[in-house]
Amino acid sequence: xxxxxxxxxxxxxxxxxxxxxxxxxxxxxxxxxxxxxxxxxxxxxxxxxxxxxxxxxxxxxxxxxxxxxxxxxxxxxxxxxxxxxxxxxxxxxxxxxxxxxxxxxxxxxxxxxxxxxxxxxxxxxxxxxxxxxxxxxxxxxxxxxxxxxxxxxxxxxxxxxxxxxxxxxxxxxxxxxxxxxxxxxxxxxxxxxxxxxxxxxxxxxxxxxxxxxxxxxxxxxxxxxxxxxxxxxxxxxxxxxxxxxxxxxxxxxxxxxxxxxxxxxxx
Length: 267
Hints:
Structural class: mainly alpha
Radius of gyration: 31 Å
Oligomer: single chain
Strand content: under 5%
Keywords: Mitochondrion, Ribonucleoprotein, Ribosomal protein
Main location: mitochondrion
Distance between the termini: 101 Å
Mean pLDDT: 78
Number of domains: 3
Largest sheet: 2 strands, antiparallel
Protein name: Large ribosomal subunit protein uL29m
Order of helices and strands: HHHHHEEHHHHH
């Protein structure tokens, strides 16, 4: 009751000042006038309400928004745990804002400026999780000799498709847990399943083969159009294609001789 008696006149005085004083100024005046016994009760300073979910107004309608690069693992490894904790919430807030702006632009059929920002934020969050996981593994290996992560293994499902299953702790043992055994069957069999697996693997093989052929044709087109292109950079761009072998093809060398002959005749 004593605390309420002290707060009541202050609240009345604050309500009278709200019409002429801004919110932040009123909050500062309240902190100055509150006695030490009442100042232990903390309140959150007001921000911008739901506008935190939207980008700055100066970026609305722009075709491109200036932004930096994402956080790499090397940048995050030199940060402390408290810095990583704060950075995680900054990235989470940025991701929510970008997702809101992307949805708003789709709803209004407008162009979302610089959509690569969302990819960089997601990549930064993935790198941050990996760095935190590295520190956790190092700590547990130093203290207990184990990684400290949840154990798991690669198992097949009822259709024969392999996936990584993370283990969980259960009160009932595995041999006595009837519900778990009914829902988790890591075996497969039957002619229908084997037929499905054969067709599924054939489809995956055809997709890889088509992708490999597309990359090969693109490399051939680049070599024929730009004979002096840097082959090392091209090999890094297309790691599945043997650039040196394609460079020795007759149709590519013939195209180079024709271009060199035409250039010499023109001179």
